[in-house]
Amino acid sequence: MAEFKQGDIVWYNTGDHIVKCTITRVDDQWRKKYGKDGVLYYEIDEPVGRSLADYELTYSFDEASADFVKTFNEYAQMRKEA
What we know:
This protein is α+β, with helices and mostly antiparallel strands. The chain contains 2 helices and 5 strands; from the N terminus they run E-E-H-E-E-E-H. The protein has helices at 29-34, 61-81, and strands at residues 9-13, 18-27, 41-44, 52-53, 57-58.
């Protein structure tokens, strides 16, 4: 997983749309406690109501949009099977 820094421009897939945002704070409390196995969490300049893990963010719009399409197709398949 990528390790982002404060000020990095990243993309966040909300599930409904893709948002371009900036890292405003890196929460490294778990990294300090558990070393390299600890998860980093990030706060962004968009109101999401929680910190985000590294696997929820990407540097690339193409990667974020591919994940969005994959999630949409999985949801569409579930609806079709229901």
